[in-house]
Amino acid sequence: MIFKGYSKTFSTENAKQYETIGAFWDVMSAKFGRDNLRGLGYHWTENSIEYVIGLKHGDIGDSCLMENALYKEVSLPDKGWLRYQGKTEELPAIYERIYEKGALTYEIEAFDNDGNCEIMIYRYFMRA
Questions:
Q1: pTM of this prediction?
Q2: Nearest one of 76, 55, 54 to 123, comparing CA atoms
Q3: Could you say which of 44, 60, 97, 112 has the lowest number of CB atoms within 10 Å?
Q4: Which residues contact 126 (CB under 8 A, 6 or more apart)?
Q5: 7, containing H or E segment
């Protein structure tokens, strides 16, 4: 699968990514509608995450002007994803459960205007 959208890199220090990625979602939601979007988290480092926001269906296109954001196409696995659902206000608790089983390779998030969220995760484990 190819994920297409606008990408920014965010600091994960002191869990500030929740606020800054949330602000990115707000900007994109104003342009495209929250129900139409999904976000991809990947390329984690010790203190950052790359995050891409694109459409749930179709290509968001590369003509949107956004400060510090670049249009990207990211190739993702077609199979092996796990799905979690809940309320957006419970997001930290949902991620706590997810991370109990280890680090992620990719996450795809979707939110709606009714306060619901869906998280799809993918982990790649190297075999010894």
A1: 0.89
A2: 76
A3: 97
A4: none
A5: strand 2-11
